[in-house]
Amino acid sequence: MNSANAADRRRRFDRLVGTFHQDMYRYAAWLSRDRTVAEDVVQESLLRAWKSLDALRDDGAAKYWLLTIVRRENARYFERRRLETVDVDSLTPAQEALLASSPDDETDDMRQAIYRLDDDYREPLVLQVLMGYSTGEIAEMMGLKQGAVLTRLHRARNKLKEDLQREAPGEDLGGARRKEEIRGDLLEDLGGKQANDD
User: What CATH number should be reported for the domain holding residue 64?
Assistant: First the structure.
């Protein structure tokens, strides 16, 4: 590869990554549930994207392509690594207090409820609500039929509603205004942008 082609390739990569880096990180953070792991997953994804950049024929499909790489790298990360375990009998008093404390903030409750969802439900919900993808786009990314995505989204929302109602019985959790406030808080927490639901 001559230096002109190498420079063009580098500019193309920088442009794509500059545009979609935040989306890659936000998606990795929701998939992995850990910001440090998300950073590692994004780094590995960037390396893989660089190596296979020539396979991307249409820059208009770059976001799907990059997020698919993130999704696969996240799976590889957890296949390769054994998660550390902690002996709960040997915790310090401060660590015990952290374990025993329960967040009383509604945004934290919503975030934790989303984290408790099975991956099959959490992933399409995050892609739609936080990343702004349509159900058709989610179906294409996940290799599913659109009807399956709609079913998973419906079940994810029902599970969230049930979970949150269990935590706060008797409260009205269905208000659209409060949902938008919580969604905005979650997006702000992850450095995201507002996305449209389908």
Answer: 1.10.1740.10
Say which CATH number the domain at 167 has: 1.10.10.10
Q: State the residue range of the domain holding 177.
A: 102-189
Burial of 150 (0-12, 13-18, 19+ CB in 10 A): middle
Distance separating alpha carbons of residues 70 and 31, to the nearest angstrom: 9
Q: Where are the beta strands (DSSP E) in 16-109?
A: none
Distance from C-alpha of 172 to C-alpha of 163, rounded to nearest angstrom:
13
* pLDDT tens, position by position, 64-118: 899 889 988 988 887 776 555 556 566 666 665 555 555 446 777 787 888 888 8
Q: Give domain status of residue 92, yes or no.
A: no
Q: CA-to-CA distance for 81 and 57, rounded, in angstroms?
A: 33
